[in-house]
Amino acid sequence: MVPLYAVTIVLYGLAAISLGYLTGGDAEIIDFRNGLPYFGTFNGEYMHQEDGTLFGHSWTLGIEEKFYIIWPLIMVLLWKNRLLAGIALVSCLLVLTWIGRNPELLIRGYAGLSFGAALAVAASQSKGLADWLRSRSAIWMPLAGIAIAYADSLVSPHPYLWNVLISFFAAGLIGSLWLGEKRWLNRALSLPPLAAAGRLTYAIYLTHVLAMNVVVLALSKLNIALPWLALFVICYCASVAVAIVLHRVIEKPMIEAGRNIVKRSAPPVTVPA
To answer: I need a labelling partner for 5 at 20 to 30 A (CA). Which of 32, 39, 76, 130 fits?
Structure first.
């Protein structure tokens, strides 16, 4: 994750310099420079909204990194006292949200991660909940909830309410897919093209804004005007193409290197006769 993220920051920096050169101004360079201390340290969720817009979508990674530290610590140190663990988790999330300039983003980010983690713990402790998630009917309620919340977000937009509800139902959907087997949605998501696209999602997420800027700038330089649907298809294909290169050159080799390190450092397992 970190090596690909570092390479992506370099690519966005080069893009900011290139845009400054092509447009004859330094607005993109200043914007990137102001945001670099934040997203360079996984703190993009705390920077000013007008800074670092070229790579501003990396704010979600800052939330994820902090949650990945807080949650395991609470699980290890306080899990014997469930009430104390819950209080500690909520307190940490409230503090992290309170000190931010964009609380609606923090609420959306931490809510989604918290719902998923809480459901995983609850399902591991409750056989009834786990059995329900495995049932065929369990998949329909989350799907309906996501659809209704999304429709409401179009009719009556809110900074975070509908996002939180979508995250809540999405946690149930993911839990149902994880525990359930041989469902139509499981089979559909397991199709080779979708599975291959799933392996590229992190690289696509990091570089899609960069790819879109390059495509739009190239078309404007060529004086080509396209309808939004054609522009969407071209930008999406460009994002996937960039992601494939980064996945094969950086992400996949780093994942394999990490697995080899874990294998070498893991203690030998003795199996009794």
So the answer is: 76
Phi, psi dihedrals of residue 263, rounded to the nearest 5°: -65, -40
User: How far apart, in whole angstroms, are the C-alpha atoms of residue 170 and residue 175?
Assistant: 8
**Does residue 121 lie in a domain region?**
no
Of residues 83, 39, 90, 84, the one with CA closest to residue 67: 90
**Which residues does the chain have with pLDDT short of 50?**
none
Residue 45 and residue 106 in contact, taking contact as beta carbons nearer than 8 Å: yes
Asked if residues 34 and 52 have their Cβ atoms less than 8 Å apart, the reply is yes
69: exposed, middle or buried (Cβ count in 10 Å: 0-12, 13-18, 19+): exposed
**Domain range spanning residue 223?**
191-258
Place of tokens 């056989």: 127
Interhelix angle for 103-125 vs 82-98, to 10°?
Answer: 160
d(CA 213, CA 11): 12
- Asked if residue 199 is part of any domain, the answer here is yes
CA atoms of 158 and 104, how far apart (whole Å): 10
User: Would the CA dihedral through 27, 29, 33, 35 be positive or negative?
Assistant: positive
Burial (0-12, 13-18, 19+ Cβ within 10 Å), 28 = buried
The sign one gets for the Cα dihedral 110, 115, 118, 120 is: negative
Query: Could you give phi then psi for residue 161, rounded to 5 degrees?
Result: -55, -50
The reply to whether 172 falls in a domain is: no
Q: How many folded domains does the chain comprise?
A: 1
In contact, 168 and 145? CB cutoff 8 Å: yes
Q: Which residue has the tokens 């060529």?
A: 222
Q: How far is CA 200 from CA 73, 115, 189, in A?
A: 30, 24, 14
20, part of any domain = no
